[in-house]
Amino acid sequence: MLPDYELVQTMEIEAIVGNALRTATRLKVGCPYWATVYALLKLRNLKLQNS
Fold first, then answer.
1. Which DSSP letter does residue 51 get?
2. Which end of the chain has fewer surrounding CB within 10 Å, N or C?
3. How far apart (Å, rounded) are the C-alpha atoms in residues 31 and 1?
4. Dihedral (Cα; 8, 17, 19, 47), 10-degree rounding
């Protein structure tokens, strides 16, 4: 993800953060930090896609 971020490209957050977050949700493990990181990265990707 870091190389994509540095090159101002969209990142593969679904494969890296999204799957881990969905697994944690399924197992009923709280991950508020990762949920916040996921939301912020998703917003960044949307911004890049719309520009």
1. -
2. C
3. 20
4. -40
Using alpha carbons, select from 37, 30, 27, 29 the residue that is nearest to residue 5. 37
CA pseudo-torsion sign 41, 15, 34, 29: positive
pLDDT in tens, 8-49: 777 788 888 999 999 999 999 999 999 999 999 999 888 888
Question: Under a CB-based contact definition with an 8 Å cutoff, are residues 24 and 34 in contact?
Answer: yes
Report the alpha-carbon distance of residue 43 to residue 31 in Å, rounded: 18
